[in-house]
Write a structure and sequence with these properties.
The chain is α/β, with parallel strands linked by helices and 364 residues long. The protein has 3 domains: 90 residues, Arc Repressor Mutant, subunit A, CATH 1.10.10; 115 residues, D-Maltodextrin-Binding Protein, domain 2 (3-Layer(aba) Sandwich); 97 residues, 3-Layer(aba) Sandwich (D-Maltodextrin-Binding Protein, domain 2), CATH 3.40.190.10. It is 44% helix and 20% strand. The strands form 3 sheets. Strands 5, 6, 7, 8, 9, 10, 11, 12 and 13 form a 9-stranded mixed β-sheet that branches. It is globular and about 60 Å long.
């Protein structure tokens, strides 16, 4: 049995921890502020709302809405969003984070004896639980919605670009990888690409769904864009995906096919880490065009110009797929809850259920 398969079947004891949180209820009414301080604290370290939202266990859209609602209820700005500089706290937002950090330092010392007493009480009787699968996945709205609202299994998720995620699996730093490839690729291209990180005798792949990528533009497509080349010729501002993401690779391929140099495109260096972040940037007027999935454009009431269909699926060790945890994970993805959520999203199509198999069958 491989080291990864052995690790998946290990058990560990997870004891409760004594925690506290601010309750802004009387001040902010119906606004859910339970993750506000966690989000603001993450912004200090990350400087980008997409990364901070992930660290706080939220979608980009939820984080954006939480900040907007809290700012309206408080009557004061918490963050400044500047093109090319990310998202930064205002003096007021920074003061809240500083106060929260100081309170944690003081209260942790008070909590420590009670935490030890709780651990001593539970340790003799608490049961070991299976270790959680580690999922590194290219950002996807269907998967994000399922994780936030519909899943009933436990795993740790890390949003990573397709190439970064596959590299992590090859280094045995995660158990399952979510990635996507254009349907215009051949089976040989898929196999060669995956072979940069994985081994065909050890790893298996499973396609899950189709989704449509294209240009995300202002509602009504006022610049009448059809290709990224149109945006370059007209000197429009672009918002790009981060290096290491599958979408960034696709963008670079499209630019190269049209003989375009990245340096000739205003905003090529402006990177965001999720499809929602791309759509939000266009919606905020900070860019004229981005490249992402149709569902993200629709969520922000934007225009969309379809360019390519692609397949999104998973790769994992064959031993992981055969494990109890792996089978439970795949069964939920093939279940009716995920399928119905998928059908409800524009630009998505489910694929027939399939067991993980050979790489050259990914596009079949």
């Amino acid at each position: 049995m491989s080291p990864a398969a052995t690790r998946i079947h290990k058990s560990k004891v997870s004891l409760p921890r004594l925690r506290w949180a601010w309750d802004f209820g009387p001040l902010l009414g119906d606004v859910d502020t339970s993750r506000l301080l966690a989000l603001l604290t993450a912004l200090v370290a990350e400087g980008a709302l997409g990364n901070a939202a992930k660290q706080a266990g939220m979608s980009y859209r939820s984080a954006w809405g939480l900040l907007r609602d809290c700012e309206q209820a408080m009557g004061a700005a918490l963050v400044n969003m500047e093109r090319g500089r990310g998202t930064r706290l205002t003096d007021f937002g920074a003061s809240l984070v500083q106060l929260d950090a100081a309170a944690h330092l003081a209260l942790d010392a008070v909590h420590a004896p009670w935490q030890r007493r709780l651990e001593d009480l539970l340790a003799p009787v608490v049961r070991a639980v299976p270790e959680r699968l580690r999922l590194a996945a290219s950002h996807d709205l269907a998967l994000a919605d399922w994780i936030e609202h519909g899943r009933r299994i436990s795993f740790d998720l890390f949003w990573r670009g397709s190439e970064e995620a596959l590299s992590s699996l090859g280094r045995d730093e995660c158990d399952v990888v979510g990635f996507h490839v254009p349907e215009i690729w051949s089976a040989g291209q898929v196999a060669n690409w995956l072979g940069r990180w994985l081994k065909p005798q050890l790893h298996a792949c499973m396609p899950l769904m189709r989704r449509r990528q294209g240009l995300i533009v202002a509602r009504g497509n006022p610049h009448r864009l059809q290709t990224l080349a149109d945006a370059s010729r007209r000197g429009l501002r672009m918002v790009n995906r981060q290096r290491g993401s599958g979408t960034r690779s696709l963008i670079d391929q499209l630019l190269a096919a049209n003989g375009l140099q990245p340096a000739s495109i205003d905003g090529y260096a402006h990177e965001e880490f999720t499809h929602e972040a791309i759509a939000a940037t266009v919606a905020a007027g900070q860019a004229d065009v981005g490249f992402g999935i149709e569902a993200a454009a629709m969520r922000y009431d934007l225009g969309f110009v379809p360019v390519v269909w692609e397949r999104y699926g998973f790769a994992m060790l064959a031993a992981t797929a055969a494990s109890l945890e792996g089978r439970q994970f795949l069964a939920r993805l093939h279940g009716n809850t995920f399928r119905q959520r998928l059908i409800a999203l524009p630009g998505y199509e489910p694929l027939p259920p399939r067991a993980p198999g050979a790489w050259d069958e990914f596009l079949a």
